[in-house]
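Re: that chain you flagged

S.,

Sorry for the slow reply, it's been a week of failed gels. I finally had a moment to sit down with the sequence you sent. For the record, here it is as I used it:
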Amino acid sequence: MTRRDGLFGLLSILILSSFMPMGPIGPLTGAVLLSIYCVYLLILIKKQRKYYTSHLIEGGDAGWKTIVTAVLSFAGLVVFCRVLVYSAVEIAVVLHIPEMIVGLFALAIGTSLAELVVAVNSARKHMCSLSLGTVLGSNIFNILIGIGIPSLFVKIPVEPLSVVLDAPILIVVTVIVMYFMWTDMELRRVEGVVLLIIYIIYAALRIAITR
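Prediction finished late last night. Pasting the structure tokens below so you have them in one place:
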């Protein structure tokens, strides 16, 4: 599963990156991104239908309790993330922090907290496929749907620095993650540290250039 998701994630990034040098992302690019997500979704449903059919959770108090807990937890995370995001935006406005920096870090971190919580809990329970699948699936959704749908209604401007720095780094990091996954079929602690260091270096570089 993670190999398929990883390849689709890389494909999504490459396609988006190929459109970025052309200028603002408009309806045509949005339609392409949405079409790719539809293909991904159809493949996902087809591959998982048999699995979920044979692993259906039988009805009962335990099943309903799990569902209710999951819904309430998700709702709490959504509220927390929204508060964090809006607070970060207000602080950025007051401190005159560039919008791109806010989007790359404050908003990105705030909107990714839900996936981070799920990934950490899954990893602690040794459910590695769920942990990686959550992160990869979220990235695919954010690129294909998060950019695809808005671009159908309004053109999304592309910052030149995003073309020459952000997109290439995203591609390189995705390839590194896929390499880590495919060598041992898991992400080890040292590999996680490597990814964290890369992010810190990227953040420092991006902030320094923006200033």
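What I noticed first: The chain has one domain: 2-55+62-210.

Talk soon,
D.
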